[in-house]
Amino acid sequence: MDTQFIKKDALGPEYVTFVYDSKIGMEGILVIDNTVLGPGKGGIRMTPDITQEEIFRLARAMTLKNAISGIPFGGAKAGIIWKGGPDQLKKQYIQSFAEAIKIFTPKKYVAGPDVNTGEREMKWFVETTGRWKSATGKPTNLCMKIFGKPGEKCGIPHEFGSAGFGVAEATAVAAEFAGIELKKSIVAIHGFGNVGSFVYTFLTKLGAKVVAIADKNGVVFSEQGFERKKLEFLIKEKKSIMEYKGGKIIESNDFWNLPIDIIIPASVTDVINEKNKNLIRAKIIVEAGNISMGEKVEEELFQRGILIVPDIVANAGGVISSFTEYRGYNPKRMFEIIKQKISRNTKFILRKSKEKNLSPRIVAEEIAKKRVWEAMRKRKISKKRLRRSDLFTC
Question: Cα(37)–Cα(336) distance, rounded to whole angstroms?
Fold first, then answer.
């Protein structure tokens, strides 16, 4: 396959692997962008329109996200073209993909949940590779005994809401930074999947009022906020927001034009784009989804005075959770670490952004790249020293 849509630079990518299984028609791609800070970490997404460019951009975002979060992972991402089908076929796709790329796991690549993959798919993945650390986001009842010690390590599924929890914490920090009282704030969430639904849950617990929620089927507006019990039922049953009774269905474009304080895009890549950017009236955007908008659009919104918390800062809760599972921590400690890291990083990036009059994205990426460059420099020096020492060995 042609790699013309994959940008190559000094950071990476290190590996671009295309997979095809002619027996079942499975096609997939793995991009391992950079592993200088640790194994490339990134989820497996399964959608019908996966592209090389999308997977590369997401892999690079993971490199920067892990660096800015200060966790020992590099960046990677995987995608499988999935047009839908029975669970048995989906399992075969995951197993086939896992078998094809297991040579990279876990030293170069650690998988995780993403669009259309969750704890069940991660269980299938690790069962196929036969390596406990080849994926995170596994079910809580999938455990491994610790060699030579009492106890065991168990999975921490993303269904616990780690990413949504982190976004809620980032939103609270951003609101305070902007002088907005969170308990009086009005919020709209674009996306009602695992991230968006938990953003709603955790944000409303902090006192924010969510008045609009969108998913792939449409938008529901409820001026007085949503009834918690009704929404919790939809979340539990994995129903569309369109099945909510008591709200008003509005046009998709009207979502962006609502007179609210905070917009949280928690859906697909580039959901904020040239077509809707000028409609936005919110004071704050917190990117819960990966690459919610392109860099050009983001810069334009920043120049308009909108405070933006970029994805590599705001939605790092998922990968921080992955790190805690990888280390064998429990869920309680996982949430504590996410709160600590997300709050600290958001405050730091927003403060630096204001001091330098640069967008939070630029500031965050500069810091992340600096950390990766420094690690690459040290590795290069170490390799030189190793080669020199080899001259004196027999």
Answer: 23
